Amino acid sequence: MDRDALADFLRRRRAELRPDDVGLPAGARRRVPGLQREEVAQLAAMSADYYTRLEQRRGPQPSTQMLGSLARALRLTGDERDYLYRVCGHSAPDRVSGSHVAPALLRVMDRLVDTPAMVLGPLGETLVQNDPARALFGDASQLSGMERSAIYRWFVHPEQERWRYPEEDHERQGRAQVASLRAAHGAAGAGSPAAEMVAVLQARSPEFARLWEAHEVSRRFEDHKVLIHPEIGPIEVDCQALFTEDASQVLLVLTAPPRSEADSRLRLLAVLGTQRLVDEHPDLPRG
Known about the structure:
The chain is α+β, with helices and mostly antiparallel strands. It has helices spanning about 5-15, 35-45, 50-55, 65-75, 80-85, 105-110, 130-135, 150-155, 160, 170-190, 195-205, 205-210, 260-270, 275-280; strands at about 115-120, 125-130, 225-230, 235-245, 250-255. Strands 2-1-5-4-3 form a five-stranded antiparallel beta sheet. α2 packs across α4 (about 65-75).
């Protein structure tokens, strides 16, 4: 691990960002340009002391999970992300894995403060989400492995995942999940994480195996659906999708017509937060 190179790299990337670049309020006038250390730590979900030690060449070797969080917080490009891993003594992750969130999608999501938005990977795994999305779907950062995939959870943990949708919509949602995985499997091929997930789901879910045999293929995310919040109730939303150029990631945004009842309910999500949602459903997967 090259602590000198890491510290210099972090300081320079931090100095290049402004609060509004990452969805933070500008606040009072700043003595120096760029983000504060505490703000980077907040964005990366780490302690300010830990991040400060990295910039002061005193920190331990960060884990790959921590580096992924830093790459997202600092809005690093793919090349910058790879460099960050290497100066910390790790191999750069495979770019097709979808673990590194495209900075362009993050910039758009940063500006969606009152609207549920999230970036999904090729297997339906939530890579990053804003506060309204956490309030609606739960905090996906607590999940790991295949549990991060909504496709996997839909079939392996139906009692924990499907309550967010009206029962009459379960069949349609299940078919859409399988069709999306079929598209990802076709693009990635044998030996890929998509193929591994297919094998696991075929073994664990007869419902998935039945739907898989239908050979439906679709990557569409545009949709009109009803989502159920345990306190707010049903919310009718329109789903819009913005893909990266290689279609490996998608920014999913949930909206409702202005001044509608659904729009008012969406605005309540930021007020309620996520804590009461977790308390209401203690059986939600936590990772």
